[in-house]
Write a structure and sequence with these properties.
The complex is a heterodimer of chains A (285) and B (307). Chain A has 285 residues and is mainly alpha-helical. Helix content of chain A is 73%, strand content 0%. Chain A contains 13 helices and no strands. In chain A, helix 3 packs antiparallel against helix 4, helix 3 packs parallel to helix 6 and helix 4 crosses helix 6. Chain A is globular, with a radius of gyration of 23 Å. The two termini of chain A are 13 Å apart. Chain B starts with a helix and ends with a helix. Chain B has a single domain, classed as MetI-like fold (Orthogonal Bundle), CATH 1.10.3720.10. Helices cover 70% and strands 4% of the residues of chain B. The N terminus of chain B is likely disordered. Chain B is globular and about 75 Å long. A two-stranded antiparallel ribbon of chain B has the order 1-2. Classes of the chains: A mainly alpha (285), B mainly alpha (307).
Chain lengths: 285, 307
């Protein structure tokens, strides 16, 4: 987990001055972040200035017009509400299923657990459209189309395998003596998990929950297939700003900021854990 | 604690380890069975039927007809070719840019903390937002990128390039937000890999007289192989199944020139209402992806082990 956060004391000898490299890196990072900064600045322009010719990087006047237009649209707040409901629902469901499953699969190595982890990994390779099509048929048969429940279930097919793999890695870092000690003290196997093991991995569970939440919050294709009106989520609403209302770029930049800024702020605060969560599988090899 | 473990007396109510592990995995297995395995069986079943979206009850068994039709359809072959070109193009630039950034961060070490913080921000940004943003940057007539290029005299005037309207370049232009979003993922994963390389190995190569480029090619790169493998597989799969990022920019247009496989399947299902053909295409796509993933896994890990 902490591989990223551990800078080594000695650095390679540099032939170019270190200051030049730092300056170069700073320039690259600045250019890299320019597109998002531009989006942010554009969202605060008056709607008429958004497509002005020639385009200007900074707003000539700061205005909340675009945000007002977005919030005044009666279908936007419910869409954000649906996104939140579905993301929370699928996060809770995937944790409820993944915590015991990852514990069972990684703490007690059985033949089944190997197959189980492999199946969870293979699920990640399935193109969303290949699963989305039959899920549409299934949800129609069950009468669940255009309900948040359908989307919660669909998004859990993405977040559950992810959560199983992340949590399995966290459980593996817990020494097995801890479980044995708890059992000697009279805990059942399940009691040992709840009372002794879980408190040790709360950090891991929190970061897994964040990944599951964002996977659902950002998901588009299942939402497009499985919802039409009542259960529509924010990304679908954003894409319809394009089609149904013509190209109203001003409100579109505002809604894109409203949709992405919370995620970016969370990423900023939890940067170390997120980078760790994304990279630990890779660097372990 | 370790000493005590030797005297472990199994608690009275205790289950065997295997049974307990199975019990713990059972709910998740049930869920994946009902929501992943069963739908995939349903997908394969549907691919042998003529089913229309609006009349799901009227099903007719037609054997391999759907497969024969889609495999002989030029539009599918085109979409598959585009998916491949898109994936290779996006992956190539993500790796090149990601590697450059990671090496740069590694060279300045601890002082790159702030740089890496900024670089981590796009990790969680949705492809929808990236797609909208780049569509806005590249928009015909008023896009700021064309104005910047014209200002630098790289193009004669701001309307010289229609990034998303020109059928010849649109497939590559729609990958810009993908490259923008994912370069940071590659950079941070490779950086973590670089930090894990024992310093004495590189130092030893230096003492033996290896130059900077030799050290990179002969020591660093081979040691990074598992990291590169993971990045290639994870990102390759993601790029090949891209839907939302391209959909939000062009919906596959103009003239289908940015229609990739996911989109081709979606259109067969929703626009043309042909569940059977859409299912056959989706099943083929799924099979190819799984085979590719298994092959690349075998190839990369098999060779790593023998090294």
């Amino acid at each position: 987990m902490s591989a990223v956060a551990l800078p080594k004391a000695a650095r390679p000898r540099l032939s170019i001055g270190p200051a030049v490299i730092v300056a170069g890196a700073t320039l690259i990072v600045f250019i890299y972040s320019l597109p998002y900064i531009y989006l942010l600045l554009t969202s605060f322009k008056p709607a008429n200035d958004v497509l002005q010719i020639p385009p200007s990087f900074f707003p000539a006047r700061v205005s909340l017009e675009n945000y007002a237009a977005v919030l005044a649209n009666p279908s936007i707040p419910p869409a954000f509400g649906n996104s939140l409901l579905v993301a929370v629902g699928s996060t809770l469901l995937s944790l409820l299923l993944a915590v015991p499953a990852a514990y069972g699969a990684s703490f007690f190595r059985t033949r089944l657990s190997g197959w189980f982890l492999l199946f969870a990994l293979v699920t990640r390779m399935v193109p969303s459209v290949s699963l989305g099509l039959p899920l549409f048929s299934l949800m129609r048969t069950l009468g669940l189309l255009d309900t948040p429940l359908a989307l919660i279930l669909a998004h859990t097919t993405i977040s559950l395998p992810l959560a199983i793999w992340m949590l399995a890695a966290f459980f593996e870092s817990v020494p097995s003596e801890l479980e044995e000690a708890a059992r000697i003290d009279g805990c059942s196997r399940f009691g040992a998990l709840i009372r002794v093991i879980l408190p040790v991995v709360t950090g891991g569970i929190a970061i897994t929950a964040l990944f599951a939440f964002i996977a659902s919050w950002n998901e588009f294709l299942y939402a497009l297939l499985l919802t039409s009106q009542r259960a529509t989520t924010a990304p679908i609403m954003i894409s319809q700003f394009k089609t149904a209302y013509g190209l109203s770029w001003g409100p579109m930049t505002a809604i894109a900021v409203l949709y992405s800024a919370p995620v970016i702020l969370v990423s900023l605060v939890l940067q170390k854990q997120i980078v760790g969560g994304l990279t630990f599988g890779a660097v372990k090899g | 604690m370790i000493g005590a473990a030797r005297y472990t007396i199994p608690a009275r109510r205790s289950l065997s380890q295997t049974r307990f592990a199975t019990l713990m995995m059972a709910p998740a297995m049930l869920f994946l069975g009902v929501m992943v395995a069963y739908p995939i069986i349903l997908l394969v079943t549907n691919s042998f039927f003529h089913v229309e979206l609006l009349k799901p009850a009227a099903r007719a068994w037609i054997g391999l007809d759907n497969y024969l039709k889609v495999l002989s359809s030029g539009r599918l072959a085109d979409a598959a070719g585009r998916t491949l070109r898109y994936t290779v193009f996006a992956l190539f630039f993500e790796l090149v840019f990601g590697f450059m950034a990671a090496l740069l961060f590694n060279a300045i070490g601890a002082r790159s903390r702030w740089h890496r913080t900024v670089f981590a921000l796009p990790l969680m940004v949705s492809p929808i937002v990236a797609g909208i943003l780049w569509r806005f940057l590249l928009i015909d007539q008023v896009g700021i990128i064309n104005y910047a290029l014209a200002g630098l005299h790289l193009i004669p005037d701001p309307s010289a390039i229609s990034w998303l309207g020109n059928a010849d370049i649109v497939l590559y232009a729609v990958s810009f937000p993908d490259i923008w979003l994912t370069t940071s993922f590659v950079a941070l994963v490779v950086f973590a890999g670089l930090q894990n390389i024992p310093r004495d190995l590189i130092e030893a190569a230096r003492i033996d007289g290896a130059g900077a480029i030799q050290r990179f090619l002969l020591v660093t790169l081979p040691l990074l192989r598992p990291v590169i493998a993971v990045v290639l597989i994870v990102r390759g799969v993601d790029a090949a199944k891209t839907f939302d990022l391209i959909w939000i920019q062009t919906e596959g247009g103009p003239n289908f020139q940015s229609e990739v496989l996911s989109m081709n399947i979606y259109q067969r299902m929703i626009r043309y209402g042909d569940v059977g053909q859409a299912s056959a295409t989706a099943a083929l796509f799924l099979a190819v992806m799984l085979v590719l993933a298994v092959l690349s896994y075998r190839f990369i890990w098999g060779r790593t082990r023998s090294v």
